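Q: What would this complex look like in 3D?
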Amino acid sequence: MIITPILIAVVMIAGVLAGGLGALLGIGGGVFLVPFLNSVVGLPIKVAIATSLMTVIATSSAVSAGTAGRNLINLRLGMVLEVASAAGGLAAGLTFERLSERMLYIWFAVVTAAIAALMITRLDRRNVLDPKIDPGRLGGRYFDEESGREIAYRVKRLPVAMMVSATAGIVSGSLGIGGGILKVPMLIAWCGVPLRAAAATSALMIGVTALASVPIQYANGYIHPPLAAAAVLGVLAGSRAGLYFGGRAKARSVKLLMAIVLALVSVLYFFKVM
Amino acid sequence: MENEHGIARLERRLGRLFLAGITLSAAALVCGLALFLGAQGTPLAPRFLSVGLLILMATPAMRVLFSVVEYARMRDWFFVFVTAVVLVQLTVTMIVALSARAG
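A: Here is my prediction, written as structure tokens for the whole assembly.
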């Protein structure tokens, strides 16, 4: 492949856009970057996936550097779920050469459609308890900028969270997305974690999840360092902007925007296999 | 609770680790990309680029390693176990990647 300055510039711009949307939604942004690099830029799908996974690590570190110390990241919950998501990522990394992309696209389209529907039906549900309650071993509390109050929550249905995290890890390693797109709605809808804590915890986890597969893909030649560098730098610039606006956006509008994005991604993936 | 202080301290330290990792990595990638575009064919460009990508990948790994140590200091053995399992998983990935490169 010939890497021209124009190609590098296009990949960097794609990174800025994907990083911005990703940070705003608390997802990796790879869900935009992979189809863009593959369909618009014309990179082979596996190169697009591996490049995107590199940017997922960058998003994870950059977003976590910004949210650490604000009690938003649930370290305990994140580290427990990471056991499952890293196992999923490792499984995807080991089977990457033999994976049928068509099957994964169909499955991914179904999953994103289901999550989009779930998000829209639960737009006004808030997982907030009285701040005086004991949040338990895996729960947490943080100060919410939007309402100006302290928020406490308990984690429910941990086995479900583990299963979805493992699935998210497999999807992450095989499709080049962060996997937050699966975990965040699940943590909100089924496990009682409020949106901002779910997004911050997910952002922490996606780096390790991607790291469970990306070195294998790098070793197998799916990373072109100049393109990966351009995508990573673009995503870093974009995620800074996304994080800045993310703190000010209303939780309800962030959820609605996420649902719309999920529905669009689902349609895109359905069209890809037709 | 002493452990709550420990967790808060761990979180602040991890924040600094992420900032350092991402800054160093980005600096190396900017240098590498500038050399790649400005001075075609220089052997320094690929070196800077791969160092940048390696620092990028090392940052979350360091975070897990750091967490194992910090939870051990807090004597929270359940979380020492949990983070150690993740560290083992990442080690398996590294071994597979290195053997794929060699093979």
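A: To summarize the key features: Chain B has a mean pLDDT of 91. The two ends of chain B are 51 Å apart (CA to CA).
Q: Very helpful, thank you.
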